[in-house]
Design goal:
There is one protein chain. Helix content is 72%, strand content 0%. It is mainly α.
């Protein structure tokens, strides 16, 4: 099974449960379904981790962890996949989401100068108060739509690919065992 390959890169559940900073969650982290690796938990963990990776918010690991606890899916795999958007990949991923949202809404994308100005206004708190130039909400709609859809699409694709990979691996293992049995008998 692909368990061995995936487990090689995941942390040990006991080491995570022993973390003093996670003491308030210790009873929840004892749930075996959070650490169990099967086709269902791995596939849903891939979906949820990729979806949360494209959430346009800081600290994406928080909703990812809460979802893993609520849905009882493999927590380490979810945490690993949230890092698809890391400091090196964040800008290209968010730009792709913004482009997708702009295309779907039929709204022209803001230029880099307009984005920089909007960023400065947001940091100064001006854009939150004023509604000049269409307001912050109108400017953020394509971005929010695009990143949410991109997260859903990539999560669904990851879910499907994990299911297919798991199935391919299982069928291959069955065929190899059958071939070994035939060789042993014959």
């Amino acid at each position: 099974m692909p368990k061995a390959l995936i487990r090689r890169y995941l942390p040990d559940p006991e080491r995570i449960r022993e973390q003093k900073s996670l003491g308030f969650l210790r009873h929840r982290l004892g749930d075996p379904s959070l650490w169990h690796l099967n086709r269902r938990s791995a596939s849903w963990a891939v979906f949820w981790g990729l979806f949360c990776a494209f959430l346009p918010m800081p600290l994406q690991m928080v909703p990812a962890a809460i979802g893993a606890l609520l849905f009882r899916i493999n927590l380490p795999l979810v945490m690993l996949l949230v890092w698809v958007t890391n400091p090196l990949t964040l800008l290209p991923c968010m730009y792709a989401g913004y482009w997708l949202g702009s295309e779907l809404m039929g709204v022209p994308m803001l230029s880099w100068q307009e984005l920089e100005l909007l960023g400065r206004q947001m940091l100064d708190g001006q854009e939150m108060i004023t509604a000049s130039g269409g307001g912050l909400w109108l400017r953020l709609q394509p971005f929010l739509l695009g990143t949410t859809l991109l997260g859903l699409l990539l999560g669904a694709l990851g879910y499907l690919l994990m299911r297919l990979y798991w199935r391919w691996h299982a069928v291959r293992a069955w065929r190899l065992r059958a071939a070994r049995r035939r060789r042993a008998q014959g």
